[in-house]
Amino acid sequence: MTSHSVAEQTRRALEVHLLDGSWPVGMRLPAERVLAETLGVSRNTVREAIFCLKERGLLFSRHGSGVFVSDRLQTAISSPWRQLVAAHPDLRWDTLEFRRELEGATAYYAALRANASDLEKIEGIVRRLTDAYDTGEKEEEYRADADFHEAIAEASHNSMFLYLHSGIVRMLREHICLNLMAMEDPTGDVTEHLRQQHLGIWDRIRAQQPDQARQAMLAHIDFTWSELARREDTRTSQ
Predict the structure, then answer these.
(1) Could you tell me which of 177, 15, 24, 194 has the C-alpha nearest to residue 92?
(2) Which residues contact 210 (CB under 8 A, 6 or more apart)?
(3) Residues 19-28: pLDDT tens digits?
(4) Could you tell me which of 202, 235, 197, 204 has the C-alpha nearest to residue 219?
(5) How many of the other CB atoms lie within 10 Å of CB of 89?
(6) Cβ distance 165 to 105 under 8 Å?
(7) Residue 231 CB-half CA count within 13 A
(8) Of 170, 172, 166, 171, which is closest to residue 153 (Cα–Cα)?
(9) Among candidates 146, 151, 62, which has minimal Cα distance to 106?
(10) Are the C-beta atoms of 69 and 18 separated by less than 8 Å?
(11) Among the residues of the chain, which ranges form H helices?
(12) Cα distance between residue 230 and residue 235, in whole Å
């Protein structure tokens, strides 16, 4: 194995710790010696991998204290999370799986607890989203889609759901944007499916039908999953 491939493999191993949450924001990294022994590489290789992640803003140094995990992955407007998805494609499916559980629950409780202000906010977002579908303004579609899911989490009035959702909201926005870009379809069939799914979720929430709202949300996430998987299968078989 070349020194370049060893360094690349080491960098990817460190990235996994950032992705799976085992290295949370603010954590001090183990010493280079410990990392080198754990990964079975030289300290110079570890130092090079850390340098690359510092260059991307994912890690930072404090003089005399060590190397720490930054909040860049969660808070950057142009998030390096998108780059990491490209290098770690399984993350897309992990995130969808997480979203399926979280957002099915938030839709359920939003249907139970949404007040007049919540419903007015969601209705306004639905109008923006349907207008974007009609005009083909993709950037507005991405924003409105993410706003829709965020507003439902807020309408659940559950502090833990809100904490989880707000803690990763930028990453979820990136995830939604990436998925929509990957599902673009010149025939308009996918767009029409998404329109009907979002309207169905909204209808169930405003009708105060929690079980149906949950099922509508799960069907929406499942459609996204199956459509992305179908396209990936097509690419790999070509």
Answers:
(1) 177
(2) 107, 108, 109, 111, 112
(3) 766 787 788 9
(4) 197
(5) 9
(6) no
(7) 13
(8) 166
(9) 151
(10) yes
(11) 3-19, 32-39, 43-55, 72-75, 81-87, 90-113, 116-135, 138-155, 159-167, 169-182, 189-206, 210-237
(12) 9
Tokens of 68: 């720490």
Strand 59-62 and strand 66-69: the pairing is: antiparallel
pLDDT reported for residue 56: 84
Taking only the tens place, the pLDDT of each residue in 126-159 is 999 999 999 888 878 888 988 899 899 989 998 8
In the chain, the domains with their CATH numbers are 3-75 (1.10.10.10), 90-227 (1.20.120.530)
C-alpha dihedral (216, 219, 220, 223), degrees to nearest 10: -160
What's the rounded Cα separation, in Å, for the pair 132 and 176? 15
The answer to whether residue 98 scores a pLDDT higher than 60 is yes
Look up the pTM and report it. 0.62
Q: For residue 237, what pLDDT is reported?
A: 67
Q: What's the sign of the alpha-carbon dihedral 117, 118, 119, 120?
A: positive
